[in-house]
Every structure is written in structure tokens, then in C-alpha cells.
Amino acid sequence: xxxxxxxxxxxSGDNIKKVVxxxxxxxxxxxxxxxxxxxxxxxxxxxxxxxxxxxxxRENTYAVDLARNSGQHAAIMAGFNYAKxxxxxxxxxxxxxxxxxxxxxxEKLNExxxxxxxxxxxxxxRSLYREFGTKCATAMANWMIPRPKxxxxxxxxxxxxxxxxxxxxxxxxxxxxxxxxxxxxxxxALIDSKQNERLEGKSxxxxxxxxxxxxxxxxxxxxxPLRVSIxxxxxxxxxxxxxGIYVVIHKLVHPEVLVGWSSTxxxxxxxxxxAFVILGMIGEYVGRIYLCINKTPQFVVRQVSCKNGRKxxxxxx
Length: 317
Hints:
Helix content: 40-55%
Shape: elongated
Number of domains: 2
Number of strands: 8
Radius of gyration: 25 Å
Structural class: alpha/beta
CATH topology of the largest domain: Spore Coat Polysaccharide Biosynthesis Protein SpsA, Chain A
CATH superfamily of the largest domain: Spore Coat Polysaccharide Biosynthesis Protein SpsA, Chain A
Strand content: 5-15%
Distance between the termini: 18 Å
């Protein structure tokens, strides 16, 4: 098998047939053999029934049903475990991915790159909420995760098999795909591309899900937040010492001046605020360590459907 294409699906019953058709139209222009692995991420609607229907009518097409909503990145990890291609690509389920550039991504891999991804020069019309979320996530990723200058790895990318085999060695909860890619290789090519308008429906990324994704990036691949908390603690301690010296000197110079209750409370609230933020950050790390020790699964596969009931073998980790 030359190519495996992983599609994480969530409430995408209205879009997924068009996405699969676009992939077929693109791959018909090549002589590559390919498979499509659609992973239903616990959709509350009939998404799995639709992708199962597609899988049962086609060769080399699989519908994987997760037992619960585990998140887009965990769904991709599930798909990686079934991929048999020498090249593995990921694709979004909403039609925004410009799948026509998949052959160009593969060309870059043939040139010697380990991973190839689009560099979006045109993201089309997006809501202010999504635009803000994307900018925050990009800023966070640039600061937190070491990377070559200017390189971002979106959900849509293609990678050589050895990269994916390295990625799926990560068996802890809270996977973060970009961090796992960048942990495996810096040899990444970028191709200018545009992001299409969503075919139907709206994004499944609520503010809560975006926040959880950012926390995954923060806590799974960097200790920078803890180092920043040390800096905040040192700054707060320095401010406390300076204010304390000022208060003592001021009292000695002006003994008739009463020490202000309001200023004391303000300083206490400031110090306790910083302390609670730092404790919360440490607690987040400790909590995730506990979940990892407790072997919380990334995902649980309920069933896999395909034509003639033949199921793909999991790749060797």
C-alpha cells in the first residue's frame, strides 16, 4: 500500500461523502494505491452509519468507531494504528482541506523530506472567534514547542511511515499531533495552499475544546510554564521586599502616618493571586501525571467496519 489517508470525523455526515469523492478524484490522477481510514470520534449523530456505509461499498476503505468522544488528535492516533501505507496523510472531515495538493506533498517526501504540510496563505472567511483561537494556538505553539523557523504543522499533512511509527509510540492520554511530529523530526517541507470554506455545519471546536487542546500542548511537551511561574514568583518576591523596605523607611521618616489597611490587603491579594495561579499550574501537571500513571487510554475502539468484513491489522509499534 502506497498511501493511507486518515480522516477524523465528528458530526460530519453531511460532508464526508464529498471529502471521499475529492480524494478519489485526486488519486485517480496518480498510479498510487491508497486506503482511506475514517475514524468516528464519538459523534452523537449518524456519522458512523454514513462512514460505515461508505466503507462497506469500497475496497481499502475502513470505518473506525470510537466508544466515546476522545478529541480530534486522539482520533488521528487511532487511525495511525491501522494505517498500512508507506506514506500516511491526514485530512479534515469538513471539506476545508485542499486534498488536491496531496500528490505535491508526496513529491516533497520523495525529495527527501520526512513530513510535508500546507502553509495556508489564504484561510478564507472565518469567524472572529476561530481567527482569535487560531492566532492564540499558533502563538502558544511557537513559544512552547521547538521547531524550525516559520514551520507550523496543521491537521492536514503527509509523513513517511517511520515518522508515524515513532508518533504512535506515545501511548499516554492527551496526544498533541503537532508536538508529536516535531518531536520526531524537523525535516519538514511546506507548500503554499488555501483553506476552503466549510461545506456544511459548524466547527466542533468549542471554546472548552480549544482550551483543552492548548493545555495539552502546554503540559505534554514543555515545562516552560513551570519556569515562567518561577520567574513570576521571583518578581513577586522582589516586589514584596521593595514594598516592605519602602513601608519601613516611610514609617521611620513619618511616624505619624498610619499604615494603610487597603494597601496591605491589596498586596496580600496580589501575592495570593500569583500563588494560586502557580499552584493551579503545578496541579495541572500533577493531575496529568496521575492520569498517565493510571493508564487512561487515548481512545477506545468499539468496532471497525469494511467491505466483506475484512479488518485492517494494526501496525507494529
